Amino acid sequence: MQSSSFLPEEHLQLPDHPGVYKYFNEADELIYVGKAKSLKKRVSSYFNKNTGENLKTRRMVKEIRRIEITLVDSELDALLLENNLIKKIQPRYNILLRDDKTYPYLLITKEHFPRIFQTRKHIPKRGTYFGPFASVKAMNNVLDLIRDLFTIRTCKLDLSPYKIDEGKYKVCLEFHIGNCQGPCVGLQKETQYLKDLEQAKHILKGNLGVPKAYFRQEMQSLAENLEFEKAQKMKNKLDLLEKYQSKSLITSPSIQNLDVCTLVSDEKYAYVNYMRVINGAMITSKNVELKKKLDESSEELLITALVRLQDQFQSDAEEILVNIEPENPIEGLNLTVPKIGDKRKLIELSLKNALFYKKEKALLQGLNQDKKDRVIRQLQQDLSLPDIPDHIECFDNSNIQGTNPVASMVCFLGGKPAVKEYRHYHIKTVDGPNDFASMKEIVGRRYKRLIEEGKPLPKLIVIDGGKGQLSSAVEALQELGIYGKMPIIGIAKRLEEIYFPGDSYPIHIEKKSESLKLLQRIRDEAHRFAITFHRNVRSKNAFNTQLTEIPGIGENTVDKLLKHFKSVKNIKSATEAELTELVGKSRTNSLLDWIEKNKGA
Predict the structure, then answer these.
(1) Which structural domain, as residue segments, surrounds residue 458?
(2) Is the CB of residue 574 less than 8 Å from the CB of residue 565?
(3) Residue 203 and residue 212: Cα distance in Å, rounded?
(4) UvrC family homology region profile domain: from which residue to which, for each copy (predicted)?
(5) What does the pLDDT look like over 528-556, one tens digit per residue?
(6) How many CA atoms lie within 13 A of 483 on its CB side?
(7) What is the C-alpha separation between 475 and 481, in angstroms, rounded?
(8) How many Cα atoms sit within 13 Å of 523 on the Cβ side?
(9) Domains contained in the chain, number
């Protein structure tokens, strides 16, 4: 692969070759990654006056300050590279799969007499992973099947040969009930254990034909040797495997190894169902939602989702059934739109799943929106507000024994946290622990800035505290000349009393009211945000003071360490190589000496 960098106006100099292009903005942030059969034609299309009529596309093109390209051998290679970059960096204008679940895997460990167990952490050096499984129930069914068919150990003992030879272990209950053959005391050879494990791997891959042939061969061999009791056990295992396969069969077993991917969409979102089918059995089914970013075509959305899902589920299928005929086929990606037969039935089944997922999402979104609207309308009624409080900002101070005073502001839009609008504040004009003066400072700073930037003011301001903090916030608004333009209240923690400016008596909202719960959630979020910031500042200041006393370690080095490792704990647990790469050998030696002396501190 070969990479080069260009300015936007140099797009006509790009080669007529397959590859990946990356757009960077003025801050040199990657904002979009795309693939192309011809880089020159594709990139030039963004800057052609006759194209790019989509508003979002025009907005993106205005941001482009630099173009970087990577040449590859084929359009399929470009598609795979594009997928890897998007998955790793997640640029702002690229399609993202909306999926907040952490799916489980089955892990075969890398050790003597390997174990099989479920995990949600993917650490490649631990062993071989199978999955992820979209359904925990399906994963447990496979694991139960393997444990019924083979005696795979479940203990965590180190079964290195010398440990077994030393006679350190005794057999446990699993041995006595027949679930283990006692490798810990040398009753099972590792070669036979690995032979069984190899068959288990085939089951995990969905290839049931190999273990079926294995059990059938073993059964016949034992019967020929007149070991009928053992042969019957093999027959029972073969029957168990046949029963499992018949339950998961959804089409003809002659359909060997293929993927099914279908898409339905509306104006803003696309909904995709993806299925893996091996020997007629569905081993994976997954639904995902994609948010449209640049008015992408259905074909583009489908291929984007397909490549990422194949990567996630480690698919090696050569044939992929889809419901959208590709206008621009990608060489190496075998997409088929079946019209009749078993394959068409698979498309119809997948489409049924995608449509149900779309309907489910729409229903859930409607319910959530109804609830949010209901809660903020109830809050408007409970507080007698002139407007619906769909934009609420809440302030809180944090200082412990007067040290490192800080404050926070959290923002809720439509009853939901708008995390990008959250703000931290260092108290600048107040000496010592003075919550009232600190509150006046941060409220004044916040709304002075909004006025200067011409941004909208909130529909409700919430102050975490009683009458004193509320009065200080009101003073700040009065000095800015905006008091009375938006409601402001204080909420006291002890009895959840709501105070209005100039009113000596608080009001109480029904304890079980959804509107009070919303106010409590906003208040608690502001408190959490302030406390977290205060803890980080206090930790950083204490750590800075300690570190800057070490010879050769200055403030710049400390800032570099914290920026890279994010926390003091990570710095202390970093390896010597990691520290050396960041701050050099000499500073690393000084730092390691200090860490060693302060262990447990």
Answers:
(1) 391-536
(2) yes
(3) 10
(4) 333-477
(5) 887 876 566 555 554 555 566 677 777 67
(6) 18
(7) 10
(8) 20
(9) 5
